[in-house]
């Protein structure tokens, strides 16, 4: 408002001076034509003097008014450019204002890049239009001098100026009036402002150069602020993007993560922590870390104190807390210090791994391994299970409990099952010790084979050793049982080809062996006496003299045309 009032007063004063000047000239002209004799000569001299004085005052006023308007524009534009932090906007305001104040034909603003080279950031003409690439012909001699010396340059006619008149750019581009001033920030030249006129000589004055230099000082600060603001914006965008990425990573971590400051105030928790503890982020954030740990297990508080005192993490603590809405779960907990860039502890991070499902699967696997040979389990790939099998030579072992029917009438079902399991467990342990594959338990009998799915060149010898281990294990077991509960095994072993693979359907599969060698081994076992181990000639041929044996009477096995020659194994040699 004060600027407007000042401008109005200046315009009124200019108008009054113009009216006074016009009146004086009118009187002067009248007196020049009509010189009344009644008026003394001193009157004419006074009028002529007043007219000359009004003319001089008017010229001085116009000069002062021009300076006032320039200073007012300088202050006003300084305020305008400092209200914007958008670099391109600031540059455009700066350039258009300079051209308007100086009456230049063209203006260029150049800034130093990261390598120190001057780069044109904006180029405008007197009608406030951006120049195209074909109009960017300027005197780099002038620009380089200003940038290197840090002093302003004014030439009223570059064609005749001894400093620049011989320069190719000045001659080729017909450059005449030129002003160039440095842009400074903290005594360092950060760029230059260059204006010129290719038509008029003597356009620029020393006062305009001073005005341009003063304006450049304000512009340099505004430009630097805009550049810093742009840099901060870029850094903020990078930090925001990084934070967004970290938030996504943090949220996607399968482990529950809760961070707290040194006083136990919760700072962050991810989605996994909410799910594991069955609490919302708001609910967790309203608690202290000590409260959360106490609700899980009071024994965790000393561990937290140890972490804070020693700056060392505590890893792999296993607890089984009861969680509201979930019941009892299995957790593995780690507490680690959170440190800043100077390695000073600023808080702690609590990492929660829900082991409930994993432990359940491990328990199921252990149970499965008791039902199926571990060797078979290792060979199974759930993603590539297909029905069918392949032909392979195996050694089959059948072991059947003798005397079980007799004691079943004397014992309760619970006692009977207990005794049966102890005998079958002894047999299974002996078979697995030789890395045999237990196919199934058939009531009071067990069926196993060797050489599949893992190849075993000594499969026949392994089967015989397993049978001898069964017999020896029963001797140890019988020392713990009363005589009426002592049972024995009859064992039959045969080597032959069978088809091994997955039999059944996609919903119910069984890994088993099918072939005549299975039936032969079973028939031999049916003819074995208690604690007797019978094998066929095919087994003997593969023992390579490692066992002592003797032939027994040939067996007429069901389904066989000819009697089957068998041998009784005594011991290993």
Automatic annotation (TrEMBL):
Record-stated family: Belongs to the adenylyl cyclase class-3 family.
SMART domains membership: CYCc, GAF, PAS
InterPro entries (alphabetical): A/G_cyclase (IPR001054), Adenylyl/Guanylyl_Cyclase_3/4 (IPR050697), GAF (IPR003018), GAF-like_dom_sf (IPR029016), Nucleotide_cyclase (IPR029787), PAS (IPR000014), PAS-like_dom_sf (IPR035965), PAS_4 (IPR013656)
GO MF annotations, alphabetized: adenylate cyclase activity
Name listed for the protein in its UniProt record: Guanylate cyclase domain-containing protein
UniProt domain Guanylate cyclase: residue ranges: 395-525
GO biological process: cyclic nucleotide biosynthetic process; intracellular signal transduction
Gene3D superfamilies: 3.30.450.40, Nucleotide cyclase (3.30.70.1230), PAS domain (3.30.450.20)
Record's signal peptide: none
């Amino acid at each position: 408002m004060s600027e407007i009032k000042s401008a109005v007063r200046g315009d009124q004063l200019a108008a009054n001076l113009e009216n006074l000047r016009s009146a004086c000239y009118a009187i002067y002209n009248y007196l020049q034509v009509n010189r009344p004799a009644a008026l003394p000569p001193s009157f004419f001299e006074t009028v002529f003097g007043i007219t000359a004085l009004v003319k001089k005052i008017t010229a001085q006023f116009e000069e002062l008014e021009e300076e006032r308007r320039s200073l007012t524009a300088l202050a006003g534009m300084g305020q305008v450019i400092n209200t914007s932090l958008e670099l391109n906007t600031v540059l455009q305001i700066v350039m258009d204002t300079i051209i308007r104040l100086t009456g230049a034909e063209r203006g260029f603003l150049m800034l130093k890049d990261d390598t120190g080279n001057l780069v044109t950031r904006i180029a405008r003409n007197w009608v406030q239009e951006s120049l195209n690439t074909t109009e960017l012909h300027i005197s780099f001699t002038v620009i380089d001098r200003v940038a290197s010396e840090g002093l302003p340059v004014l030439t009223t006619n570059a064609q005749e100026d001894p400093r620049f008149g011989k320069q190719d750019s000045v001659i080729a581009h017909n450059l005449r009036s030129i002003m160039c001033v440095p842009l400074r920030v903290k005594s360092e030249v950060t760029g230059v402002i260059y204006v010129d006129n290719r038509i008029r000589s003597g356009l620029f004055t020393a006062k305009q150069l001073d005005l341009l230099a003063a304006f450049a000082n304000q512009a340099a600060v505004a430009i630097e602020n805009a550049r810093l603001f742009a840099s901060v914006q870029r850094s903020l965008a990078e930090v925001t993007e990084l934070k967004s990425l970290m938030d996504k990573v943090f949220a996607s971590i399968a482990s529950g993560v809760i961070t707290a400051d040194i006083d136990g105030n919760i700072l962050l928790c991810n989605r996994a922590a909410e799910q594991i503890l069955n609490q919302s982020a708001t609910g967790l954030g309203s608690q202290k870390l000590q409260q959360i740990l106490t609700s899980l297990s009071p024994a965790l508080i000393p561990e937290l104190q140890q972490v804070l005192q020693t700056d060392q993490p505590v890893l792999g603590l296993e607890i089984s807390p009861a969680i509201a809405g979930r019941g009892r779960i299995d957790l593995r907990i780690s507490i680690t210090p959170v440190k800043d860039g100077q390695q000073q502890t600023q808080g702690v991070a609590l990492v929660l791994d829900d082991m409930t499902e994993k432990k359940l699967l491990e328990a199921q696997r252990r149970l499965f391994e008791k039902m199926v040979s571990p060797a078979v389990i290792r060979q199974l790939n759930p993603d590539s299970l297909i029905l069918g099998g392949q032909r392979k030579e195996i050694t089959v072992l059948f072991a059947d409990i003798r005397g079980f029917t007799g004691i079943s009438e004397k014992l309760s079902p619970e006692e009977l099952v207990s005794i049966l399991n102890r005998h079958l467990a002894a047999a299974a342990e002996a078979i697995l010790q030789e890395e045999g594959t237990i196919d199934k338990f058939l009531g009071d009998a067990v069926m196993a084979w060797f050489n599949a799915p893992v190849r075993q060149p000594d499969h026949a010898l392994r089967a015989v050793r397993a049978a001898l281990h069964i017999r020896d294990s029963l001797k140890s077991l019988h020392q713990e049982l009363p005589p009426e509960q002592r049972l024995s095994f009859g064992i039959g072993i045969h080597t032959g080809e069978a088809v091994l693979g997955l039999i059944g359907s996609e919903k119910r599969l069984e890994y088993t062996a099918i072939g005549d060698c299975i039936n032969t081994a079973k028939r031999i076992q049916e003819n074995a006496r208690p604690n007797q181990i019978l094998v066929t000639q095919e087994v003997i041929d593969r023992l390579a003299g490692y066992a002592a044996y003797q032939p027994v009477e040939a067996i007429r096995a069901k389904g066989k045309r000819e009697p089957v020659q068998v041998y009784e194994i005594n011991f290993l040699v």
